[in-house]
Write a structure and sequence with these properties.
2 helices; mainly beta; 4-stranded mixed β-sheet
Amino acid sequence: MKFEIQFSGHENIRSNHKKTIEITKESHLTPRGDCIVGVNATSSCADLPLELKEKLKNPDSKINFSIRVDDHEFLLEGRGHPELILSHAEDIVIRKSDFICPRTLAIKCDKASDLLPRDMVALLQDPKIKGVFSISVD
């Protein structure tokens, strides 16, 4: 199953957090949001289809993510968990840790926002740029 979320860039994108990656439906971003790679997202955790949420809650699920901007693509993977809440109305966060809150989409991810290539981050600092966040569950 694959689900895609469109998002926009923002001048304050830093993408240097070592444990998480976030996209948000909010349009405002301060420089403190250093894990955020996109704003104005078309979906949050709460908006995901029920079938996808069920797959995400399976601890055996391997979840693949891609962040595409122009001709750049950043790939990472994480795990599902039965205690995922998936109810936050604004945000999606994928984590290297096993911390779970309503914003958490996946845990034990192999990468965080600090590993996003700097040329991608430079593109994402343009508010006119559009990106795609893809979620694929085996």
